[in-house]
Design a protein that fits this description.
Blueprint: H1 8-21, E1 27-30, E2 45-50, E3 55-61, E4 66-71, E5 76-80, E6 87-90, E7 108-113, E8 119-123, E9 128-133, E10 136-141, E11 143-144, E12 147-148, E13 155-157, E14 163-167, E15 187-191, E16 197-201, E17 207-212, E18 218-225, E19 228-235, E20 246-250, H2 252-256, E21 266-268, E22 274-278, E23 281-285, E24 291-296, E25 303-307, E26 312-317, E27 320-325
Antiparallel strand pairs: 1-24, 2-27, 3-4, 4-5, 5-6, 7-8, 8-9, 9-10, 11-12, 13-14, 14-15, 15-16, 17-18, 18-19, 19-20, 21-22, 22-23, 23-24, 25-26, 26-27
Length: 333
């Protein structure tokens, strides 16, 4: 049969429709009765938008009352205001170079706000963590011991004002094998309030999302490595460094069983439970590592964020964005 050729505009619309159709409404898979205290069995998921390329880095602006999230391949940060359609907030968001970016992920990734309410982003293409204020970006961390960072991925502020972030090579065109890669490892870093960037750990091949326990005595870090898909728990020392970590939960078997996605972004609620994207959707993990259940999305799922009054969980799932009301709360940045 002769293939029918479509005008580019029509083909684009059809492709977008196909992408939309691939994102089902999430469901709740309960593995423990303890999940009942955190989210209702019949909790309704609301789809805020879809048709993006790869959604990441959701963060709720508590002052403005809106959601921001990254679309990494499109090099843009989008904004959703309740009752309105999603619109572009910043473009470019992660790469400001004059030469065409040759890799698939030039944009911003993880987003948060500092203590003064200023947006701070991990920028893949620019290979830095930067603060956005009054229409301009200010680099906060772009080198370690004189060498360029790989491509900062996710970030979280400590109550002291120190900034913790991960640095895998996903933003480099050839990732681990990219000739422009200057550091021979993938690190977890701390930027002190004096601007000093300290390497805390380099044992993970693919460090990704990270978040503190409510008492800030533990830093949880996801590793998005297909051969060792795990969540680590590191004790936080008094000086801000990390002690020897332990595996909190291992999801390698679930990934190899073809459940979509790897450990990626995560947040912690005020009760200490970890809401972490992983194989199959968003895993809800108790502080002792017990897998309580999964918000099953059916697609690779990148990240989550607390929003509204702190009880709504926002989810960036592949090409879409969802939100769902929970029975718990999380701290807003």
């Amino acid at each position: 049969m002769r293939r029918m050729l479509l005008p580019a505009a029509v083909a684009a619309v059809l492709m977008t429709s196909m992408l939309m159709a691939q994102i089902p409404t999430p469901t709740i898979v309960k593995l423990s009765p303890a999940l009942d205290a955190l989210i209702a069995d019949n909790a309704a998921f609301e789809k805020l938008g879809e048709g993006f390329k790869w959604t990441e880095g959701p963060v709720w602006d508590k002052k403005g009352g809106f959601l921001l999230f990254s679309d990494i391949p499109n090099n843009v940060i989008n904004k959703w205001v309740p009752g309105q359609s999603i619109a572009t907030f910043l473009k470019p968001s992660g790469y400001h170079g004059t030469e065409p970016f040759t890799g698939p992920e030039p944009g911003s990734n993880g987003l948060t706000f500092d203590g003064q309410g200023r947006l701070v982003a991990c920028q893949h293409g620019n290979r830095q963590v930067a603060r956005y204020d009054n229409g301009a970006w200010t680099p906060l961390a772009d080198k370690y011991e004189g060498k360029r960072l790989n491509s900062p991925n996710d970030l979280v502020f400590h109550s002291s004002g120190a900034l913790y972030f991960t640095d895998p090579p996903y933003g480099l065109p050839k990732r681990w094998d990219d000739p422009a890669k200057e550091l021979p490892f993938q690190g977890i870093y701390r930027r002190g309030i004096d601007g000093t960037v300290t390497l805390l750990n380099k044992e993970l091949n693919a460090p990704n999302g990270l978040a503190f326990s409510p008492d800030e005595k533990t830093l949880y870090v996801a590793q998005s490595d297909p051969e060792k898909a795990i969540w680590m728990a590191y004790p936080v020392n008094a000086d801000g460094t990390l002690g020897a970590g332990k595996v909190l939960k291992d999801a390698t078997a679930e990934f190899k069983a073809k459940k979509p996605g790897l450990p990626d972004g995560l947040k912690v609620d005020t009760k200490g439970n970890i809401w972490a994207t992983g194989p199959g959707g968003v895993w809800v993990i108790a502080p002792d590592g017990t897998h309580l259940g999964t918000l099953s999305t059916g697609v690779p799922t990148a990240n989550v964020a607390w929003g509204d009054d702190g009880s709504t969980l926002y989810i960036t799932a592949n090409t879409a964005v969802f939100r769902v009301k929970t029975k718990t709360t999380g701290k807003l940045p």
